[in-house]
Amino acid sequence: MRKLVGFLLMSVFTFSAFAQQKSIQWYTINEAMELNKKEPRKMLFDVYTTWCYWCKVMDKKTFTDPQVIDYINNNFYAIKLNAESKDTIAINGVRYVNPNNDDDPYHQLAIHLLKGQMAFPSITYANENNEYIAVVPGYWQPADMLNLLKYIAEGKYEQTSWQDYQASTSNK
């Protein structure tokens, strides 16, 4: 009996440790594009900088929330992009670079994804055909982020405004 209790306790602790390690599956842009060909999903581009305080809070609080993690992993291809990356990124034959100068320290892809509105953190959403849906700037609490994710993933943005969607879901 003692061995059984010990085994059960060990199993619970092992499962708890495993569950706590669960995280968002972040892809490179090219990985996401390839996966999208096989299993179409919407895309979420987390555009951040290393110096951005709210980007770090979003990573620590919002992107570690179990419900947010599960929803993103099941409904989106999630991509992180450092807006100041020095990497050259090629997408469908188009090369994006960082001009790396004092006047424009941002990567061309970040500028493209954010429509030139360089605020951090910002998330750009695209549909299954890689077409722009929206850029959403700022820090989001987990519950609010989950609501926004559902609005995007379920295609509610095609039928109703964000304000009307929020009002309809806050009454439930």
Topology readout:
Elements lengths: L1 H19 L5 E2 L1 H10 L3 E7 L4 H10 L3 H10 E7 L6 E3 L2 E3 L11 H6 L8 E5 L5 E6 L4 H12 L8 H9 L2
Parallel strand pairs: 1-3, 2-3
Antiparallel strand pairs: 2-6, 4-5, 6-7
Jot down its keywords.
44% helix, Glutaredoxin, globular, alpha/beta, 7 helices, two-stranded antiparallel ribbon, 172 residues
Task: Specify the number of helices.
Answer: 7
Number of strands: 7
CATH superfamily of the domain at 23-142: Glutaredoxin
What is the CATH fold-level name of the domain at 23-142? Answer: Glutaredoxin
CATH arch. level architecture of the domain at 23-142: 3-Layer(aba) Sandwich
Q: Measured on Cα atoms, how large is the radius of gyration? A: 19 Å
Query: Spans of 5+ residues with little confidence (pLDDT < 50)?
Result: 12-21
Average the pLDDT over all residues and give the rounded result: 89
Strand content: 15-25%
As laid out across the biggest beta sheet, the strand order is: 1-3-2-6-7
Biggest beta-sheet profile? 5 strands, mixed
